[in-house]
Amino acid sequence: xxxxKVQEALAxxxxxxxxxxxxxxxxxxxxxxxxxxxxxxxxxxxxxFAASHGVVTTKAVLSDLINVLKNSQNHESWIDVGTHxxxxxxxxxxxxxxxxxxxxxxxxxxxxxHETNEDFLAAAKILAEIPLDSSQRRxxxxxxxxxxxxxxxxxxxxxDSTTAETYLNKLKNVMHKVGDADPExxxxxxxxxARIQDSNRQFxxxxxxxxxxxxxxxxxxxxxxHTLSMAIKCAVLAPAGPLRSxxxxxxxxxxxxxxxxxxxxxxxxFFDRLLSSDEVEKFAQxxxxxxxxxxxxxxxxxARAVVEHNLLSAGRLYMNIGxxxxxxxxxxxxxxxxxxxxxxxxxGRLTGSIDQIDRIIYFEMGEASGEHGSGHTxxxxxxxxxxxxxxxxxxxxxxxxxxxxxxAEFPDFVATQIAV
Length: 420
Description:
This protein is an all-alpha fold.
């Protein structure tokens, strides 16, 4: 129920609207008790729009009303009253186009309240309603970037990387214009991009992005170490191969890595050592839910990364190994071990060959190129051909030598056999 003093002040305000409303709003503490504040502010809004005072008066009073609401520091009131005012503006077509700035300011205020309440989806939705490309309102690139970066971060808090990426792509068109002048915004942009890459399982790119951010002087030391930790996690989860090896190398060379919990698994992967199930299980406890998601074959991202890493490590230990023996080493059946090996060779992440008849995998020395289809590179194929040529030549020479010996010892026998 509207406070009696507010009702009385609203009646007097009609005589001189600008002064009357301003006086009421400036002395609202005297007219409206705290428990009725939201109701009274909505009553003032309804009275203002019902009286049809015109654009100039309405805009002036509405600006004062928004300031009073903002200064209240009551987030629930920001949502309740702010939403009521926005609806009032939207339902008055004759004024809505002239009050775009006020409606935008209210939406930002409502979004801030939702963010404080950790209702990130509601915050993102209300921010998305702010017109940024309207012909009725000129908005600077910096203001656009501020809104879009908030929308991106709110969607990321809801683990909605798809929608977040849509707004990040919009940001890319303006960040080169405003990033240099606003390092903090550029940092948020880079961090959001890294989180989206992480969520989309683009772990190599995410590892590089997180590592770059970890050197930023704009964030506290604790945050820098946290982003370094995220870089290591993403590098570990990346598909095994030469590209990941280089990423692991950069992180291993970073002296700060030695002080992190993830350093143990980082070091083992960098030196191509086999990982035990206990080490993997301990590492898994520090991962985010999306990093433990199931892949198309039913395994987790971590399980696949570990299998591929241990397969590379096996290639450093053995010249060749049977399907079933490799399966025991990887925790897979023989056929699955052969399938994984074939895939990595075909993708250029492992060099070797497979003898499906004898069920044996032959590993080649040296590092794969990382290019698709290069697991057995042209140079390696040439090397194989030359080796076969050498073996055939040696066999032919041995046959000729035996023939010469027979010719010397049993000339009649040889003549008879050749004639046959």
